[in-house]
Design a protein that fits this description.
This protein has 119 residues and is α+β, with helices and mostly antiparallel strands. It contains two helices and three strands; from the N terminus they run E-E-E-H-H. Strands 1-2-3 form a three-stranded antiparallel β-sheet, with no helix packed on it.
């Protein structure tokens, strides 16, 4: 893992042994979580090259970050017609239930529009 602070350039890298649990007691603490990954840290490194970390400022949280107050919107790439066969059944069912299936061309246009709004 690598943790990067983009506002105050700094990097931390823990190394360890990970375990994944789909029945972990912490699941109830995180909206819409499906698994909990716990890491038993064996080593910890502070990487001392902040000059290589680009500075960014958080303007607003993404609408796709789960919140306990509402259901997270389905990621647009999960609505693309040619990705449906690769999605878990619950995501395919949600696309079918909500509609808005996108062609690859429509998704590419969406990406272009999002990119032009952010610059």
């Amino acid at each position: 893992m690598l943790f990067i602070n983009f506002e105050k350039p700094h990097r931390l890298r823990p190394q360890g042994i990970a375990s994944i649990d789909d029945n972990d007691p912490l699941l109830s603490e995180y909206a819409e979580a499906q698994l909990v990954v716990r890491v038993s840290v064996t080593e910890f490194f502070v990487t001392a090259r902040p000059r290589y970390v680009h500075r960014y400022k958080k303007i607003q949280p993404s609408e796709f970050v789960p919140r306990s107050t509402c259901e997270t919107p389905l990621a647009p790439w999960k609505r693309v017609d040619d990705t449906q066969a690769s999605l878990p059944a619950k995501d395919r069912a949600r696309v079918e239930r909500e509609g808005n299936l996108l062609s690859r061309a429509e998704y590419e246009k969406y990406l272009s529009d999002v990119g032009s709004r952010e610059t």
